[in-house]
Specification:
The complex is a heterotetramer of chains A (515), B (524), C (304) and D (287). With 515 residues, chain A is an alpha+beta fold. Chain A is built from 16 helices and 26 strands. Chain C is mainly alpha-helical and 304 residues long. In chain C, α7 packs across α8 and α11 packs across α12. Classes of the chains: A alpha+beta (515), B alpha/beta (524), C mainly alpha (304), D mainly alpha (287). At the C-D interface, α1, α6, α7, α8 and α10 of C face α1, α5, α6, α9 and α10 of D. The structure holds adenosine-5'-triphosphate (ATP) (2 copies) and magnesium ion (2 copies).
């Protein structure tokens, strides 16, 4: 960059996963945020630099004393790309669309539906969102793409096209919708004049057009970048980072939410004993694994939450040291003293077996490598880790029936409320109902801490509650944090101005591409 | 016109070396016919191909001289050779049934040499093809040109081959076994055709293993054996006063010149068939084919009943009916006065050994994985035999013991046929159905097999149902004859009567077609 | 005419069988359809789940779902994708062309290579023939996806000869080659063997004796004899090409029926799987029908 | 998978007559003997453990110490290849055996069981051929859960129709042959005829298809591994190695290339030897 920014031209960005439905309200996939973000704006802007929540399409807001009514004053002069003006009715239409069961929302609805009562249009540019119970995370949630503002006229069509095209007020306009297996094209929205205040610039985007292309295979995607067939790629494998850094620009951002972690099934025979969980966590040198296997591309996790998450506790309170000797002791104490012919620990003649359920097809190569390394390291402790690859529907079935000891996941969420999904008692899956508490962890104290954190918007108070909660799950070894996952993207050197938003999705609003 | 001196052809080298032709010399003048005779494998076809430069990939051809109309053929390059083939020398290849491309129309096949050698302007090719087919006596030539070889009879195909060979009016025509595997009637027509060619001034090199055939046509005869010419001379002389022992043996082997065997003493009927009918469905709406249509016969112990008839007249079908391999649509067969067809397969199984069949193509009747020994051992087991051994059987049919360990595929045709006979005899049958037992064999071998069959009959009192399209063969072995035409018996009776004084015109036409040999002055 | 009817009936039977088998197998897989649709989105509300069950009729007994599927199929309605939430017919209509292009070009490449190589090497000296023979067997032996990756790495990323991800025809080349190699390998072996067999037939000697050149014997006589068996195999290979297409599309990140199928099967997107099976089974039946019809053209004896 | 689809008559064409002599079959045999040793006693060729990881030795290129380099977990690729032989071959062999057994049963029932049985089995075979093999495989894996056993079942199932067709064709053809007629004429019971003549003659072409099919099955198991349906980690099956290695292709070519080459060579060797043996068999029985 430097002098006069280059404008015009097109940029092709290759992503690794196909969005099944690009409607950000309906989708449950995080990849959709990269696809929808160029098109939709949000009410609130999450300033990653300061961690603050700042105005965007809402120019100001206030919350009632009972924490149940949020009133937003909207920015004027904003129009959706189909000409529909952005106003209070539009906000209401968006929120109503999210919670409407017919939208079959797999993501956003789950976040807000338990709280949302309705939205009331106060005047053309003032809207009040009324809640059934306090939900302090509302603001930060509204900053996510899942709550991005789409044209109410478009939403009203209600057809299946909503899954292929998004019509919003963003700096780009989708052309022709998502083409399955291929990607999607955008052109600049020339009328755009409502970028968030902290954006690199104001006014229309600099690129004439943007193209998102689907290249699922990692090596192919990197090859496409290095051979000049695309300008930017998502999800750079850690392995390639060093190699690319010489010739390309590698950009990274840690995603808010939970770190990539292993979850012991605390209801399982093996891991119901906290000592066994602690042994598994403390007996493996996670830092070494992460730094070696990922070639320094990611930071080793120091607790359940990623450093980019609001209200993450200081590492000093949640980090656990590597201590294999202590791990051995713990296992002995827990009764796993015997050893069988293959060197695995046994108790009452039964082997210390850990079924590690995973959906290989959906895993990155790195995580697969990691899981095999964990298998090898755990073996040294006497664990027989069996990696069971299953299709997603069967993993879910197993999760409900509890037929696993270990599962891995990274769960994104803008603030520490993600803990409630992960460890709240009502998140435990039972037959017929899936849940996100795959550790099957139940703790009334924790439940209370997390519920209380939603009752107040006072940030220090919330931070304290969340810190306590994080310490709780760490002490109980309900989670084995591994690394802070994030967004690793690479662009050619001619691309400039790509930044990350609060969800670690790249924003091409200010991007330029010189020739 | 054609001068061949010291021609030799070898295949392969070292251990695998085969000397197929070992220094033969021939000359042939326009309007003359030279016949090359000799048993199978004597090198006749190889000679023919060598004259066209087509001896094969692995062949080494050497010749003192190879001249055609003064051109030295030994000096020709591939391109010049192509100009000789079809234009200067026409070849009528062996195996008429497969020598035409089954996927192309007859017209295109005949036109090919015309086109390649630009013998006539392209526009006239069609007319010329029709003309050629007419000349060679192919009926309805305008229809035939659009048909494929599969739609033509064997004789017609042979004529098409001749038409194609003479299309460019080559001065020399080589006809390699032009009549084997053809019915006698058709054979006669082909020989006439070749004779016409010769009269018109073409030099004809006729190759055959059958002296009776060449007797009709040849001006000169060369007798080949093991790649050498053992006797060469004017036809009349060679046929009537052969000098070489081998020639004499060949002449002796020509069947049908002895009288029919004496009638056996009267004996009981072993096999009796009455009003047998077998129909086969035909594609489309056509009425079903009556392959066997009301045939009745009696076969006495120790007797041979000959069945003759053209190809397709139902002979093999009759054989399969008699041996209960197919069920008749009507009529019945009795064995030893008892029921045979009316038995259930289970009941019949125990008595199956009483009727055995010797097939036209013996090789396919052997399990390809089994050795001669295994085949015969199984047969002995099937016959419940205790006393005789495989060696006894080999002795019976005059086979060397060493052959027992070979698989039939590695035996010669005559040897294969002997194994087939041995297998049939192993189960001590009462009746043997011989379906064209010698038609795949060359004359001298055929004669041996026939002698064997006759001898065995005398010794064991076997009854034969002897099927053949070759009247000479039938005459030599049969006591009585049955003439089949289109599935019906048109004439039957004692061999001598039927074949010497036929009453039915069909029988007469069959007989007339049999090539006659000039009487020989025995010079033993 | 009767033949045509019985052929169609036969084809319908095969189609029905294929669909029924797939339907049953899909339902036999563990885990409920709703779970598969929801996937790892663990925070889905009960209302949404209920809506999914209702929209897709998942609450009904299996036999009702089966019958209603067949019923709708009779009206040409392939249903709606669970995952994509778009009509299956539209999804297939969108994904079929790229796959057909891919398979079309691959077939063209395979057939051309086969004809050229087989004709050029039939009955030629070993030094000419052996390398090709080895390549052919190797072409069949090499794992297709690995070959695809190799091609991609070498010719697209390394040598920059072909773009790998362009929508245009240039982007089609490498995937088509990857798909064509095994097919060409098998067909070339077959065709050359057929040619060599035919060249040893007596009719080939007859043609040579007429003055026909070796090339002429090959092209005018032998080829027609060698083609029919190659054609049968060609039909079968075409039918099973879809499996290769899945792999190749995956490696090259190409849109197409293969990718559609793969995600649908793992995601239990039953209407899509059934739709794809319906298409491929129809394709299989149609190809075999065409082969059967072509046969008499190559070998007119079959008409008689 | 493709080769296993060949119909009988044409299979003979495919395999029967390549006259290539030379060292091909010898090399193939030597290679297969090596593989057999690796399968039976991997420790002889590679004493180490295939699962020993070393985070200090990730993706080392081939060289001294690591003949074929190391993989993304720092495991020795050579050791893994050797120790993976048994599973990789077993998958192909077992799948082929399964396909063969099922195919023989279905084919024999079709050929010998009368018109209705014939119609039923052949329609079934057609239906199975009409469903893309991959779909069938994916479905089987989805029903039975992944792992080597399922993989074998799936590939075996896909291969079955080809064998069924071949067996049926062979039996029908042999039943009409002259030598079977000759055996019947000697009064042999049908069971005897079947045991003595039909089965032994039907077996060689079926076995030939099986040799080619084994190669195809090994390849198919690799392809299914590629699609994520492979064996359980850390089993060093070649297909799985290949699949994992491809993610590292640009940086560490050897992780994918070596299993790919070994896999190709194996299939090549099996096919070459199978064709050679068939040729030998044919040589004894022209016609
Ligand atoms: N291409 C070849 N390679 C090796 N040997 C051959 C070849 N062609 C012919 N022979 C051998 O040459 C010898 C002569 O064969 P040829 O075909 O000339 O016999 P023939 O006299 O025509 O017999 P027939 O009456 O059976 O046609 C035989 O031993 C045969 O096996
Ligand atoms: N299984 C069958 N199905 C249909 N038609 C048949 C069958 N077997 C024989 N025919 C037909 O029955 C007729 C008589 O055949 P058959 O084999 O008995 O003749 P043939 O006298 O033995 O002839 P050739 O001398 O050629 O052996 C022929 O037209 C033949 O095509
Ligand atoms: Mg000959
Ligand atoms: Mg006959």
């Amino acid at each position: 960059g430097g002098d006069a920014p280059v404008t015009g031209g097109g940029l092709t960005y290759a992503i690794n996963q196909e969005p099944q439905c690009v409607d950000p309200h309906a989708t449950g996939q995080s990849v959709t945020s990269s696809v929808a973000r160029p098109v939709v704006d949000s009410l609130v802007w999450h300033d990653t630099a300061s961690g603050e929540l700042r105005p965007w399409l809402a120019s100001s807001w206030s919350v009632s004393a009972d924490q149940r009514s949020w009133t937003f004053v909207l920015r004027t002069g904003v129009t959706f790309s189909d000409g529909t003006p952005f106003d209070a009715a539009a906000v209401r239409a968006n929120l109503d669309h999210i919670v409407d069961p017919r939208t079959k929302s797999l993501g956003a609805a789950g976040v807000i539906a338990p709280y949302y009562r309705d939205s009331q249009v106060v005047d053309a540019h003032t809207v009040t969102v009324r809640l059934k119970q306090p939900f302090a995370s509302l603001l930060v949630q509204l900053s996510t793409v899942a709550f991005g503002m789409q044209s109410p006229k478009w939403l009203a069509t209600g057809g299946t096209e909503l899954c292929t095209t998004v019509v919003g007020s963003g700096p780009f306009v989708m052309q022709g919708g998502w083409r399955k297996g291929r990607g999607v094209d955008y052109v600049r929205n020339d009328a755009y004049d409502w970028a968030p205040p902290g954006a690199p610039h104001q006014g229309p985007a600099r690129l004439d057009s943007l193209h998102i292309k689907l290249i699922t295979q990692d090596s192919a995607r990197i090859g496409a970048l290095t051979s000049g067939q695309v300008d930017a790629v998502a999800r750079v494998p850690a392995l390639d980072v060093k190699r690319l850094e010489g010739t390309m620009r590698v950009l990274r951002a840690e995603a808010p939410g939970e770190n990539y972690s292993l979850f012991p099934n605390t209801a399982s025979r093996v891991f119901s004993d906290v000592r066994v969980r602690q042994a598994f966590r403390g007996g493996i040198d996670w830092d070494n694994l992460v730094q070696r296997l990922f070639f320094g591309a990611y930071r080793t996790a120091a607790g359940p939450l990623s450093p980019a998450t609001r209200f993450v506790a200081p590492a000093t309170t949640t980090a656990v040291p590597y201590d294999p000797a202590r791990a051995g002791q713990l296992l002995d104490e827990a009764g796993w003293r015997g050893r069988d012919a293959e060197g695995y620990r046994t108790r009452d003649g039964k082997r210390l077996t850990v079924r590690f359920a995973s959906v290989k097809a959906a895993e990155t190569a790195e995580n697969v490598t990691l899981s095999e390394q964990v298998q090898a390291e755990a073996r040294k402790l006497g664990f027989d880790v069996q990696i069971v690859n299953l299709p997603i529907s069967q993993v879910i079935n197993n999760a409900q029936r509890g037929t696993y000891e270990l599962m891995a996941t990274g769960f994104s969420g803008p603030d520490a409320d993600v803990l409630r999904k992960l460890f709240g008692s009502d998140g435990v899956a039972v037959p017929g109902r899936m849940g996100s508490n795959i550790a099957k962890y139940r703790n009334a104290t924790l439940d209370r801490l997390l519920a209380d954190a939603q009752l107040t918007t006072e940030e220090p108070r919330r931070a304290a509650l969340y810190a306590q909660a994080q310490k709780q799950v760490v002490d109980d070894a309900a989670v084995i944090p591994v690394y802070a996952a994030g967004s690793l993207i690479a662009t050619t050197r001619s691309v400039d101005g790509v930044v990350f938003d609060g969800e670690a999705s790249p924003s091409f609003y200010a991007a330029t591409r010189s020739r | 016109m054609l001068v061949v001196r010291d021609l030799s052809v070898t295949f392969g080298s070292g251990r695998h070396r085969v000397d197929a032709v070992r220094g033969i010399s021939l000359t042939l003048r326009a309007g003359r016919c030279l016949a090359v005779v000799g048993e199978s494998g004597s090198g006749k076809s190889v000679t023919a191909r060598a004259l066209l430069g087509l001896a094969g990939d692995h062949a080494t051809v050497r010749a003192g001289a190879l001249e055609l109309d003064g051109t030295d053929l030994t000096r020709l390059g591939p391109r010049q050779w192509r100009r000789v083939r079809g234009r200067l020398i026409g070849l009528v290849p062996q195996a008429a049934m497969v020598a035409l491309d089954p996927l192309r129309t007859v017209g295109r096949e005949v036109a090919e040499p015309l086109r390649l050698h630009r013998a006539v302007p392209p526009a006239d090719i069609g007319e010329r093809v029709v003309e050629l087919l007419t000349d060679t006596g192919v009926p309805e030539p305008r229809i035939r040109v659009r048909q494929r070889p599969g739609q033509l009879s064997g004789g017609q195909r042979q004529r098409v081959l001749i038409a194609s060979a003479i299309a460019c009016r080559p001065p020399l025509v080589i006809a390699d076994e032009p009549t084997t595997a053809l019915d006698v009637t058709v054979q006669a027509q082909i020989l006439t055709l070749l004779d016409d060619l010769r009269r018109a001034g073409t030099a004809v090199l006729l190759i055959s293993h059958d002296l009776a055939v060449v007797a009709q046509l040849a001006d000169e005869i060369a007798v080949m054996r093991d790649g050498r010419i053992v006797e060469h001379g004017p036809a009349a002389r060679v046929l009537t006063a052969p000098e070489h022992d081998y020639t004499r043996r060949l002449l002796d082997a020509v069947p049908g010149r002895g009288g029919p065997p004496a009638p056996p003493p009267s004996a009981p009927v072993v096999l009796r068939a009455d009003g047998l009918v077998k129909t086969y469905p035909r594609p489309g709406r056509a009425a079903p084919l009556r392959a066997v249509d009301g045939v009745s016969l009696r076969l006495h112990a120790g007797e041979t009943l000959g069945v003759v008839g053209e190809s397709g007249s139902g002979k093999s079908t009759l054989a399969r009916l008699v041996s209960a391999m197919v069920a008749p649509d009507a009529g019945s067969v009795e064995l030893d006065g008892g029921p045979w067809h009316d038995l259930s397969e289970r009941e019949r199984r125990g008595r199956r050994t009483e009727i055995q069949t010797i097939y036209q193509d013996p090789l396919s009747s052997f399990d390809p994985r089994h050795t001669v020994e295994v085949i015969l051992r199984h047969a002995l087991q099937a016959g419940g035999e205790r006393r005789r051994t495989v060696t006894d059987l080999l002795d019976l049919v005059g086979l060397e013991h060493g052959l027992a360990r070979r698989r039939p595929a590695l035996l010669s045709g005559g040897q294969q046929q002997r194994v087939a006979i041995a297998r049939a005899l192993a189960v001590r049958p009462r009746v043997i159905v011989c379906d064209e037992p010698v038609s795949a064999l060359d004359v001298s071998v055929a004669a041996q097999v026939l002698r064997l069959l006759v001898g065995l009959q005398r010794e064991h009192g076997l009854a034969y149902l002897f099927i053949s399209h070759h009247l000479g063969v039938v005459r030599e072995v049969s006591h009585r004859v049955l003439v089949l035409k289109d599935g019906r018996v048109v004439e039957s009776g004692v061999t001598g009567e039927v074949l010497d004084a036929p009453s039915h015109p069909y029988t007469r036409s069959l007989l007339k077609a049999v090539p006659a040999m000039p009487p020989r002055e025995a010079m033993r | 005419m009767r033949l045509v009817w019985s052929r169609c009936g036969h084809a319908l039977l095969v189609l029905w069988g294929a669909l029924t088998l797939t339907f049953l197998a899909l339902h036999l897989t563990r885990g409920s359809v709703v779970d598969a649709i929801v996937g790892n989105n663990t925070q889905v509300t009960p209302a949404v789940r209920a809506q999914i069950v209702q929209d897709y009729g998942l609450g009904r007994p299996l036999w009702q779902q089966y019958l209603s599927y067949l019923g709708r199929l009779l009206h040409g309605d392939l249903g709606t994708s669970y995952q994509l939430q778009t009509p299956v017919r539209a999804a297939i209509a969108e994904q079929l062309p790229p796959t057909l292009q891919l398979m079309g070009l691959a077939t063209l490449l395979a057939v051309t290579t086969t004809l050229v190589v087989a004709v050029a090497t039939a009955r030629r000296p070993a030094w000419l023939r052996a390398p090709f023979a080895l390549l052919e067997v190797a072409g069949v032996a090499v794992p297709q996806f690995w070959l695809a990756i190799l091609l991609l790495t070498v010719f697209s990323f390394g040598l920059h000869w072909f773009p790998a991800f362009a929508d245009g025809p240039a982007g089609l080349v490498l995937p088509a080659v990857a798909l064509a190699v095994p097919m060409a390998g098998i067909l070339t072996q077959l065709l050359r063997d057929g040619l060599e067999r035919a060249l040893e037939q007596p009719f080939a000697t007859t043609a040579r004796a007429r003055g026909q050149r070796e090339r002429g014997v090959l092209v005018r006589h032998a080829l027609r004899h060698a083609l029919p068996p190659a054609l049968t195999i060609f039909g079968l290979l075409l039918g099973s090409m879809i499996g290769g297409a899945v792999v190749v599309e995956q490696v090259f990140s190409r849109p197409g029926i293969g990718s559609l199928l793969l995600t649908a099967v793992t995601g239990k997107d039953i209407p899509v799987v059934l739709g794809v099976v319906a298409v491929t089974a129809t394709g299989y039946v149609a190809i075999n029908l065409i082969v059967d019809l072509l046969y008499p053209l190559l070998d007119p004896r079959l008409k008689d | 998978m493709a080769v296993a689809d060949l119909p009988p008559a044409d299979l003979a064409v495919l395999s029967g007559r390549r006259r290539a002599r030379g060292v091909g079959p010898v090399l193939a045999a030597v290679f297969l003997v090596l593989l057999a040793v690796a399968a039976i006693a991997p420790g002889l060729l590679a004493p180490g453990s295939p699962d020993t990881t070393s985070t200090a030795d990730l993706l080392r290129p081939p060289g001294a110490g690591h003949l074929f380099g190391t993989d993304q977990n720092g495991r020795d690729v050579y050791t893994r290849i050797v120790h993976g032989t048994r599973d990789s071959l077993l998958a192909g062999l077992a799948a082929t055996a399964l396909a063969l057994a099922a195919g023989i049963v279905v084919g024999a029932v079709g050929a010998l069981g009368g018109r209705i049985a014939d119609n039923l089995t052949m329609r079934l075979v057609e239906v199975l051929l009409a469903v893309p093999g991959l779909v069938t495989a994916l479905l089987i894996v989805a029903v039975a859960g992944p792992g080597t056993t399922t993989l074998i079942m799936a590939i075996g199932f896909i291969g079955m129709p080809a064998y069924a067709r071949l067996v049926r064709g062979q039996i029908l053809q042999l039943r009409g042959s002259a030598f079977v007629e000759a055996a019947v004429a000697q009064g042999l019971r049908p069971a005897r005829v079947a045991v003595r003549h039909i089965i032994p003659n039907a077996v060689p072409p079926v076995l030939l298809l099986a040799t080619i099919g084994t190669g195809a099955a090994i390849g198919a198991s690799a392809a299914l591994s590629f699609l994520g349906l492979g064996p359980r980690p850390p089993d060093p099956q070649w297909g799985a190695m290949l699949q994992q290695g491809q993610d590292y292709f640009a940086v560490a070519w050897w992780t994918a290339t070596i299993p790919g080459v070994v896999l190709t060579l194996t299939v090549l060797a099996i096919t070459t030897l199978g064709q050679h043996l068939q040729r030998r068999f044919d040589g004894g029985n022209p016609g």
